[in-house]
Design goal:
Layout lengths: L2 H27 L3 H25 L5 E3 L4 E3 L22 H12 L3 H14 L7 E3 H20 L13 H13 L13 E3 L11 E3 H5 L2 H11 L3 H15 L10 E3 L5 E3 L1 E2 L6 H14 L2 H17 L1 E2 L2 E2 L2 E2 L9 E3 L5 H8 L2 H18 L5 E3 L4 E2 L11 H13 L3 H17 E2 L2 E2 L1 E4 L4 E3 L4 H15 L9 E3 L5 E3 L49 H4 L31 E2 L5 E2 L5
Antiparallel strand pairs: 1-2, 3-4, 5-6, 6-7, 8-11, 9-10, 12-13, 13-14, 15-16, 17-18, 19-20, 21-22
Helix pairs in contact: 2-15, 2-16, 3-4, 3-5, 3-16, 5-6, 5-8, 6-8, 8-9, 10-11, 12-13, 12-14, 13-14, 14-15, 14-16
Bound molecules: 1-deoxymannojirimycin.
Amino acid sequence: MSPRNRGTWVLIFLVIIPTLYIETSLSKVDPFAAKKKRMSDKVRQMFYHAYDNYMEYAFPHDELKPLTKTYTDSLSELGNLKLEHLPQEYNGSALSLIESLSSLVVLGNSTEFEKAVLWLSENLIFDVDARISLFECNIRVLGGLVSAHILATDSTNRLTKGTYNNQLLVLAEKLGQRFLPAFDTPTGLPYAWINLKYGVLENETTETSTSGCGSLILEMGALSHLTGDPRFESAALRALRKLWSMRSSLNLFGTTLDVKTGEWIEYSSGIGAGVDSFYEYLLKAHILFGRDEFWRMFQSAYVAVQKYFRHGPWYHEADMRTGRATYWQLTSLQAFWPGLQVLVGDIAAANLSHREFFYVWQKYGVLPERYLLDHQMLHPTEKYYPLRPEFAESTFYLYQATKDPWYLEVGESIVDSLNFHTRVEGGFASIRDVTTMELEDHQHSFFLAETCKYLYLLFDDSFLANQNYVFTTEGHPLPVLSSWHERLPDVYIIPSNWTSVKSEGQPKRASAMSLRICPAATPNCRHNHQTLESVCHVPDASTDHRCLTDEECGVDSISCRRRSCSMAGYCGLWLSL
Ligand code: DMJ
């Protein structure tokens, strides 16, 4: 046999046959296995393109500028719209590296994770003259460190080969201590801004947002559980309870408030900017810490959202005092909501909204920051798409819940759009204007922490196989541990007529992904009004919500009004548009 022929046989026996064999056996178990493998490889490649370029051109600064292959020290700019009090001597805190830690674990890259831990433990300091947003620093830096610490100490991740000595927790604790002066207000509501070196600055603004006060409990609560120092959890809890006491008689909240007086400044709010993660943390805090208090808060808040903000598949804004609609806008940040509804078990409502977000995604190629629902057009100035994760996040949750391959197709189209429109030689760039696809020189750290992570988990969820996690609003996983639960909440005790949307073979999980909260049966709208005042509202009549005629849509569960077909062909309430 000639060497060339021998080479061909070697190729056939050692490469082609085993590959075909693996693919055939995989597809017997899961008909979409080959597609998932191909797509997860693609997403892995995207993450490393973003990460490697950050490490080459920006590290240890905060974020990468992918067009000019340089960096920005943006931690002090996050949420700082007027760019006030920018520091002179701040050289970054390796923000994108911290944000990448948990993603590296999800991708199984222990070598890079260990290198990062070592570098951070030797170099990261918080004694810097930088005025930062408490909210942003909490979700990105504290959350990144706390989550990575837990992952590093979990032996199943086979990380750090005995070299890990709680360095990340030490850093997290030091940062948490620097947060505490922000809570020193007459109300317990924290200042939105704090200087890491000097604490609250003189004449600091007392205006903050609902998210700024109500989205600290996961990270600060976890820090208290890990360190044994109760001050972090108490501060976050006191702020959350105060915020809760400020709800209107309709159980609605505003968007901005004053931390000294405890009075609302902006009475209009929705489920997007300034409020979004407040709702998210009520439910996730309940899942993580098992307190009924959080569940009760979430339940009332969720029902109020469904009653006053929801309009078919869309969510508008409303005045907290009257419940009257104010702004009719779809925003890119709102796209996290279907994911949250999956955690509640409200799959039908989640699917409905997700379809409409996808309709807008397809219309523009990505999701614009703001879309005017009443005019069916883009907001004149907010036409950007800064690589946000929310739509990918909801797609991941919906696929986990339903295993409907439709969501894999949606994921593929997100991946293709990102690669087509935003990938450049130096990383992934934001889009300045979705009508021209003009790019902006910024790769936000949440692209590494969230966008790539959720897309990867959509196609390869092996990270979730042995442990339940709650993902923080920045996509950092925190394990659901019974030792952190005061007791297993009643909501996980499953009545026999309640549904499980996961297949029977799945392990039973008392956590977010157990998806066993909403009853399967559809109560009759007219006769069961009491039942409807719960987080579980009635699914549409048809299973996939597609409609050809308005007649197919039936009656809305909460308002008992007739539904009609939306522009994307799904049932919704379209009464006063
Ligand atoms: C992230 O920092 C978090 O998801 C936050 O809750 C909202 N905004 C960004 C991503 O869009």
